[in-house]
Amino acid sequence: MELNEAFGLIMKGVESTMSDHGFSVVVPNGTEKGAVPVAVKNGSTVLTYTGQKGSAKIEFLEGKISLLCAQSQAAQAVDDDYKKITMTLFNPETADSRDIKYIVNDFSDGIIEIYGTKNKGSKKLPQPVSKSEAKSGAAYYDLNTLGSRFVTIFPELKEIYRTNVTKYGEFLADDFFLNYGNAKVRETVQKNNPTQMKKLFNMLNEIYNDGTNQTQSVIVVTILGSLYDDENLLANCVDYMGDMTLSVIETNKLLRKKSVRAKLEHPPLYKPKKQKKTPAFLNSLNGGN
Questions:
Q1: Beta pairing class for 64-70 and 83-89
Q2: pLDDT single digits (tens) 86-145
Q3: In the list 44, 68, 102, 235, which could disulfide-bond 57, CB 3.0-4.6 Å?
């Protein structure tokens, strides 16, 4: 069989395991519709997956096919971040269904070993990233961690957070904060109690500094961007915001424009099991880059 055909069969075989662990395949720019989304570079052929838990690569190089995993998401990961989990000799020209099945089982076991047991349909809340993991660089704070830490400050929202995760199988931050969380932030900022302000912003600053790009965007745009309509409220925050001060101020200026704000207030509908992308309204804030 052709190498691309083999990759297509392997991709189909590991699809369930990848999906169960929150991974979606990365489609390289220029990939034709219906083609296997592999990237060819420096003699290697690579199929890349990404998710909140990190990223994974299936790589064929010099007669060997390997599974490599990283804690960073694909957009941020570099070659040194990836660790080889398993490798086997592979010749696509002589390979048959048994060879494909062996690779699929081997790689699926590797994903489960690195990223945990299957959680599809589980009612347990996803585990937040710990402070030690974030500080060591082993993981980045994700949206679930933001939600989990937020409701420790506002415990009255814990059941709403739990319902959000249970309903969608993951934490949908836009839905939670636009409908519930932002009201608590606004109330805290209006009262401007130093103790409560420090408690809230210490958490937001910590997660922003060691968070994924998506998590940083939710903090700056979805949460603190909601203060665009009241400069006095934003002024209350300035002494507490740390490294994100400039980004928050510039974002609030942009959100005073109706056209930009509409994209924040009406995010895209939830679509399960699709690769997560930067929210459309954030692209507008960044000038479409």
A1: antiparallel
A2: 898 999 999 998 889 889 988 988 888 888 754 444 446 778 888 888 888 888 999 999
A3: 68
56, 67 in Cβ contact below 8 A? yes
**Cβ neighbour number for residue 64 with a 10 Å cutoff:** 13
Q: Where are the alpha helices (DSSP H) in the chain?
A: 3-20, 97-115, 131-136, 143-153, 158-168, 173-176, 182-191, 194-209, 213-217, 231-237, 245-255, 258-265, 280-285
Is the whole-model pTM more than 0.70?
Answer: no
User: Looking up tokens 């390997």, which residue turns up?
Assistant: 66
Handedness of CA 128, 109, 270, 122 (dihedral sign): negative
- Alpha helical stretches, state H, 51-210: 97-115, 131-136, 143-153, 158-168, 173-176, 182-191, 194-209
> Residues 87, 66: contact at Cβ < 8 Å?
yes
Residue 166 pLDDT level (bands cut at 50, 70, 90): confident
Radius of gyration of the chain (CA): 21
Take residue 285 and report the two structure tokens written for it.
């804030």
Asked if the model's pLDDT at residue 264 lies above 50, the reply is: yes
Residue 143 φ/ψ, nearest 5 degrees: -65, -35
